[in-house]
Design a protein that fits this description.
mainly beta
């Protein structure tokens, strides 16, 4: 799990809520923009970039990357031209709340290429950098670059993920969405995104990134979840769907659904507790259900790969089921799929009633 964790980026999204924040309040992270103008020399090669102890990512010809970093101080990054193996390294003195713009270029002819980065200001970068097209990466806080990351990561930041009903009053989400939270709130119950309900953690399974939370308001009435947990028989290539609230503050408070397949029956580094999926997942999807065409739960979304596009990961439903059966003082529900005869659009409409936004402070 520790090795696998370095290959993925968790998606309980940290939102700065800039519009409501005081003007003088600084972000608790910095952003590094890497961009590469289109050029003939080395155009077929990618630049590989590694920040501190994080994983390499690629910067293709004419491409751009946006890297959110929580660590501060002197940070070293390494860069390599994939075709020639040449490259170098550079130190940046990172201050919280700042943006850095680094333009990649080749100093010499490609045969004797020397890859360099120039630090530029935002105005100079606009000629080549389109922020809307930059691929997003983020420091893995489970393997931070230095100790300052854990101190900075959650100061004044709100977290947003997805949760779904598993039993009346009980909701399922990812452990990383609620871990260390001082306050947990849930909204979207009965389609109401203005009312927030307090919740507390009942049990967690950090190794499989699962958490069971309980609503504090006992007066809310829930219908039973009309789905079942499908803990076996899921095949490679089978069609699946991810439901959740990616980047809810920007993309809207409506459940989003993406389609994909089971790409592999194991996760990063052969982790047998996970599926690799092709359904697109984004920040805020964490904790949402992965369902099959019948509407059954086959997994819980928790991460996407940082080294491969269109690759996400979900905790297998068998591990979810085992977790629920071992929670003290919790009666694991016997769920039945009552949606089998409905059309898929009707199944989605039903599922939307049981999926909510979870926020933390």
């Amino acid at each position: 799990m520790k090795i696998a964790a370095r290959l993925i980026i968790c998606f309980c999204m940290f939102l700065s809520f800039v519009q409501s924040a005081p003007a003088q309040e600084k972000k608790n992270y910095s952003t590094i923009y890497f961009y590469r103008p289109k050029e003939f020399a080395g155009s077929a090669c990618s630049y590989r970039i590694k920040i501190g102890n994080q994983d390499f990512f690629n910067l293709n010809n004419g491409g751009a990357a946006e890297y959110k970093i929580y660590s501060t101080g002197k940070i070293k990054f390494t860069y390599i031209i994939s075709c020639t193996g040449t490259g170098g390294d550079m130190n940046l003195d990172i201050e919280p709340g700042k943006e850095y713009y680094l333009k990649a270029y080749i100093k010499k002819g490609f045969a004797t290429a020397e890859l360099l980065f120039a630090i530029e200001n935002e105005d100079a970068s606009k000629k080549y950098l389109d922020k809307s097209k930059a691929i997003s990466y983020e420091e893995d806080l489970r393997n931070p670059i230095n100790g300052s990351a854990s101190e900075n990561a959650h100061k004044s930041e709100k977290g947003q993920g997805t949760c779904f009903l598993i039993a009346p009053g009980y909701l399922l989400t990812n452990n990383h969405c609620v871990e260390g939270a001082k306050e947990i709130t849930v909204k979207g119950i009965d389609g109401d995104f203005t009312t927030k309900y307090g919740a507390t953690v009942v049990a967690t399974d950090p190794s499989n990134d699962l958490a069971l939370i309980k609503l504090g308001n006992k007066n809310i009435k829930f219908n039973p979840l009309p789905s079942a947990i499908r803990s076996s028989g899921v095949a490679q290539g089978e069609k699946v769907y991810a439901l959740g609230f990616p980047a809810a503050s920007a993309m809207g408070e409506e459940v989003k659904i993406t389609e994909g397949i089971i790409s592999a029956k194991s996760g990063a580094q052969g982790d047998i507790s996970k599926y690799q999926i092709s359904a697109a997942v984004n920040p805020g999807n964490s904790g949402g259900p992965l369902i099959d065409e019948q509407g059954n739960i086959v997994g819980v979304i928790y991460a996407k790969s940082t080294i491969a596009e269109s690759a996400g990961y979900a905790v297998k439903a068998s591990y979810l089921e085992a977790f629920l059966k071992n929670v003290d003082n919790f009666e694991c529900p016997t769920l039945a799929n009552t949606m089998k005869e409905k059309s898929f659009t009707e199944k989605v409409a039903e599922w939307k009633k049981y999926i909510y936004i979870v926020e933390t402070n």
